[in-house]
Amino acid sequence: MVSTPVDEIAHDFPPFFRVYKDGRVERFHNYVYVLPSDDPNTGVRSKDVNNNSARLYLPKITENNQKFPLLIYIHGGGFSTESAFSTGHDKYLHSIVTKANVVAISVDYRLAPEHPLPICYDDSWAVIKWAAALHVEMCDHLITEPWLKDHVDFSRVFLAGDSAGANIVHDMMVRASASEKPLGDGFKIIGMALIHPFFGNDEPDEYCSFVFPGCTGLDDPSRERCHESKEFGLL
Hints:
Elements: E1 9-13, E2 17-20, E3 25-27, E4 45-49, E5 54-58, E6 68-74, H1 87-100, E7 103-107, H2 119-139, H3 146-151, E8 152-162, H4 164-176, E9 189-195, H5 206-211, H6 223-226
Helix pairs in contact: 2-4
């Protein structure tokens, strides 16, 4: 049987995706979307914010005007799978918020290969700048997000992510450190957690080159953002 152009594979990158010659992308793992929810057992509440680019989680409130640290979390998935709105990551964030007693923002970024790198970095940075801008609005009494206004201590901000998300978190910290106060006064990132970080070595990699076509080689300063290690960790 002769294969048709629709069936012909142009690029194959298990366990992430394959691309057919007609441009169609087939992912080997498709996440299951879950709506934001309130958990009556833990008291954690969640909702989608910033034009659905992130999910906001609020821990159980036991005092009026109770303030919590802010955790900004970025999911993994090889830059090409998963979502902040998937069942797995939503459940994970509910657990973190319950146990760590923090307000959390879980970032949802556009995925490669349809949206090649560095788009995921820019999307994540945009969410962090949105949160920082809300702090400025709060200082000017203009803030429109009550969960952040009433319950976040912006002097205690943490970044965290798993695998490719940890790679993005590292880049976010570099950006935040690029100047003295890139995110304004009072918005202080004081720590980060890199969970099974997805970093690179000096060996060329076909997958990285495909999802980051603008990377020009070993001397490209942006190369270190995406270039993966031999140990994939929890991609």
